[in-house]
Amino acid sequence: MSAGDHTGWQAALVSAALVGTSRRPPPPPPAGWPLPDTDRSEQRLLDSAALWQAAVRAGLTPSPDSPAAPAPPERHPLAPAEADQLLRLLLEQPPVPAVLVAPLLRQWLGACAEHRLVPDAARLPALLDRATRDRSVRAALARVDSARLRWLAAANPDWRLPEGPEEEDPAGATSEQDWARLPASARPAVLRRERAADPDHGRELVESSWGTDRARERAALLAVLAEQPHPGDADLLERALDDPSSTVRAAAVAALGRLPGSRRARRMTERLAALVTVHRARGLARLRSALPLVEVARPGEPDESGVRDGLDEPTSGSRTDHWLTQLTAGTPLSWWTEQLGVGPAEVWRAVTEPAVRQGLVEATGLQQDAGWATALWELVDRPPASWLALVPAEQRERHALQRLRADTARSAATAGRRRGTLAARQVGAEALLHVPGPWGEELSRTVLDLLARAEAGTGALPVEVLATRLHPAARAVLTDRVVARETATLVAHVLQYQSASDSIREAFR
Amino acid sequence: MDRWSRAQVERVAPDTAVLAAARKLATPGPWSGCGANEVLLWGRCQGSGRTPYQVSVDLVAPAWRCTCPSRKVPCKHALALLLLWSQGALEPGGTLAGGDEVADFAVGWSARRSARESVATPGRTPDPQAQAARLQRRLQLMDAGVEELALWLGDLARTGLGAARARPGSWWDQAGARLVDAQLPGLAQTVRDLGSDVVSREDWSEHLLAVTGRLWAVVRAWRRRTDLDADQLGDLRTVVGWPVPRDEVRAGPATADDWLVLGTHRSDDGRLQQQRTWLHGRRTGETVQLLDFAAGGAGLPLPQTTGASLTATLACYPGHRPRRGLLLDEPRPADTPVPWPTPRTLAEALQQRADLLVHQPWLTVCLVHLAGVALRTDPPARLVDREGWSLPLTGDADVWSLAARTGGHPVDLVAELTGAALRPLTVTGAPAVTGLPAGAAVVV
Predict the structure, then answer these.
(1) Do A358 and A341 belong together in one domain?
(2) Closest chain A residue to B220, measured at CA
(3) Crossing angle (nearest 10°) for helices B204-223 and B185-200
(4) Which of A170, A235, B292, B339 is 20 to 30 Å from the Cα of A387, by its Cα?
């Protein structure tokens, strides 16, 4: 018997069952089907159902179908078994805190790609899950040239992976329509991503919704533009200086401050130039000192245009000092070197006015000027830690070390027992954030040594910064050392990371 | 005794938390007085207390003993000891190599265990009169319960499935609870499951009608139960949840054979963990299932290694194929491997089940060995055979794991066939392009 031949009966049976036999009697069974004799219609329905369900199961047939295109063969050999074991551990039972898993996965995938190997196919679903959640892992996974990986990623719409080994993430380019639909809270992150790929497109997105966005949203988007301003942003920012909202105007001023080629920078330069007189050394004086003398007059109350450009009232202290600093910070640093015909260090020596010097320090940070940061590092008292990112790489570690030692000495002198966050204490450790890894052995040893003693604020450094930047050989510092209780966990995590990282390196050797 | 692989140790872990804790302990630091012989592992692990925990592991009939207070079985200490052993740390020359001299606590435990095993069976002779009275009481309860179910089904048919669907979940639960009281737990579960199925399933009307028909067939069969032969009654007892005592099964005929482990399926519904292991006999050609259950914190026994050939003696529960077996002795590796049963097309596999259904109308799950089936991942995920037919996968199947390992290439596959869906268990043969090792059984 087969249920397939009796579809009409099945339909009638189901519909009778749905409304109940009190309203509709069950259909008579197909001829020849053995049903017990009964005059109770509900029993007849149940008997029919019993027969029907047995017939359906016994008569089940598969559906006609065709296979889909299978994965092409792998072109590269499999990663070694030890490496696979480590990968499995990272994915299933990570031996390190969660924030350190992604860097280790990136290292594993990087080594795998570099050696032209492929991961065991059994790990691919977990890797793709991970890559979907984590952009950095996705980029690393995309560089692995595995045919199975790409086949699998294409088959599951939940997984995202850039197309080819070297291609850009296609998930980029957000259209203006998509942008318009994005919730305000999601926009800064999307804008940041767009800006990294194409600064102009990012700005166009901001402009596309500018007219309808609320003041708070406009200010938040300008803040993202200000992170890495682009000359093309100048027009939008210039317009934003006339924005009805003071928050938006302030955000525009901040962004323009980082664009030395803008019209605002020109106006600030004109205002400053009117106050500055350069006395060049002549005659015998020139022999004694090549330095010109810079005389700076006090600025007057800013006019309407000055206020528009961000000149404002100080919260405390001298108003003219404040404006001088603001004018200097807003003027391109190149103006000084051109006017005086000397380099940054000489400009610093020639300018004695403290408010102007303060402006030069701010301008160096705002304009991200590597030349000025390098030249002024030794001249300025406690240059901002963020300058470390600007100075040449080979000087960074030296400066950071100096800073760390100075701070350790100072804190030993004051013997202050106050604890606080890194930012609040402004200690040398903060400088380390601006020194990209991997760190040299000397710096690493110093940091680990301080960490073991829980000094100089090193205990407040994020574990992922320490783990990924410290030099592996620096661990020797900890041999036979008792680590301070405050930093014991942090040190343990760093060591766990380094040992896992060593294992990965060895597994691929 | 061959050292277990890391994966084998991991499979014994009751949950991942214990395993993670065990990994942390699997360093030489806290261990002392460790050792291993052919049968036992032992060691002392320094925990937070003053006295170290005494850990013993029986490798032959996997069992564990630890003096720690953990209720996890095996606990992290036993697992850590196994991990250390699997890494070779307990071998001569390993970091924890001990003597051959077995620690006293391990000897004592092992002796007590074997004593208990041998005594357990003939230990107590139950009072036959009391037993007969208990059986009589249970039969009365079950008879009444089945008749009450008959009335309930009649009401359902009269008032209609549409009306039943509108009932709250508690209505189904109540009907289930009455069947529990009537000592018919198998039927109770079926009815309780209906309560959620009617709201969650798209084909709820056909499904409800099919289950109703099936329950009605149980009622009809129960009323004739005195006319049924032992196997028919055995099948019916499984459906209603009236278990056959193990001692009765043990006393029945035994089958000594070499068995190939085809695959294992583990499930956990939150209250009960179940492990179903499928074995295929070399001589008998019969496929039997071993069922293990565990509730609460207790762990399931170590699953047999898929693809392994074992020599063992089984007794079977009364019933038709695929029968449920019970191991009578501890399996040992067979001298020669048992060949895999011939893989079939989907149509043949369905025909095999239809043949089983002739005798076993209550069949819910059976095992099939499929030839050259390729996975299609586009929903509904399904397996397509070389003749161009397909069946969908069960909802709990790990589609992406199978996709990753096979790359959509046709492979020979052991699967459970349940309803109209397949649950893949083991890849038994794959072309080289998949990258799967030739001739190895790969659990999916």
Answers:
(1) yes
(2) A47
(3) 160
(4) A235
Domain end point (choices A104, A120, A155): A155
Residue of A nearest to B418 (CA): A57
Contact A56 B217 (CB under 8 A): no
Residue A464, token pair as written in the block: 């992922």
Q: Which residues of B touch A82 (CB under 8 A)?
A: none
pLDDT score at B125: 60
- The verdict on B385 touching A (C-beta cutoff 8 Å) is yes
Which residue is it, tokens 């072109």?
A75
The domain boundary, picked from A155, A186, A212, lies at A155
User: Which residues of chain B are within 8 Å of residue A122 when distances are taken between CB atoms?
Assistant: 401, 404-405
Q: What is the per-residue pLDDT for B122?
A: 47
Work out the pLDDT band at B98, boundaries 50, 70, 90: low
Select from A46, A59, A78 the Cβ nearest to the Cβ of B157: A46
| Average pLDDT, consecutive stretches of 10 residues, N- to C-terminus, chain A (509 residues) | 67 94 92 84 94 90 93 95 96 92 96 96 96 89 94 90 50 77 86 88 92 92 91 93 94 93 95 91 63 89 94 93 96 94 92 94 94 92 87 87 80 53 55 87 91 86 92 88 90 93 94
Model pLDDT for residues B295-351, shown as the tens digit of each residue: 766 778 888 999 999 999 999 999 999 999 999 998 999 999 999 999 999 999 999
For position A416, what pLDDT does the model report?
Answer: 46
Q: Total structural domains in chain A?
A: 5
Q: Which residues of B touch A73 (CB under 8 A)?
A: 433
Tokens of A382: 């406690």
Complex ipTM: 0.71
Domain check: are A273 and A254 in the same one? no
Is residue A69, in this structure, part of any structural domain at all?
A: no
Q: Which DSSP symbol is given to A118?
A: B
Q: Are residues A368 and A278 in the same domain?
A: yes
- A351 and A274 inside one domain: yes
Backbone angles phi, psi at B64, to 5 degrees: -140, 155
**Main-chain dihedrals φ then ψ at residue B287, nearest 5 degrees:** -100, 120
Q: Which of B323, B262, B269 is nearest to B291 (CA)?
A: B323
Q: Which residue range(s) make up the domain with A12? A: 3-58
Same domain, A370 and A441: no
Q: What is the per-residue pLDDT for A167?
A: 42
- Tokens standing for B438? 């030739």
DSSP per residue, B255-313: EEEEEEEEEEEEEE-SSEEEEEEEEEETTT--EEEEEEEEETTPPPPPPPPTT-EEEEE
Q: What pLDDT is attached to residue B23?
A: 86
A269 and A370: one domain? yes
What pLDDT score was predicted for residue A146?
Answer: 95
Contact criterion met (CB below 8 Å) for A50 and B388 = no
What span, in angstroms and rounded, lies between the C-alpha atoms of A452 and A487?
7
Q: Rank A161-170, B63-72, B353-362 by mean pLDDT and report only the highest.
A: B353-362
> Is residue A168 domain-resident?
no
B162, B354, B420 ranked by CB distance to A19: nearest? B162
Residue range B15-58, pLDDT digits in tens: 888 888 888 888 888 888 888 887 788 888 887 777 888 898 88
Q: Does A52 touch chain B (CB under 8 A)?
A: yes
Q: Does a structural domain hold residue A449?
A: yes
Of A21, A36, A73, the CB nearest to B433: A73
Size of interface A-B (CB pairs under 8 A): 171
Write the residue in A13, A64, A148 that is nearest to B404 by C-beta. Answer: A148
User: Does residue A71 lie within any of the structural domains?
Assistant: no
Residues A19 and A43 both lie in one domain: yes
Residues A458 and A489 both lie in one domain: yes
Of the listed ranges B9-13, B21-25, B249-253, B355-359, the one predicted with least confidence: B9-13
CB A28 within 8 A of CB B190: no
Q: What's the confidence (pLDDT) of residue A287?
A: 60
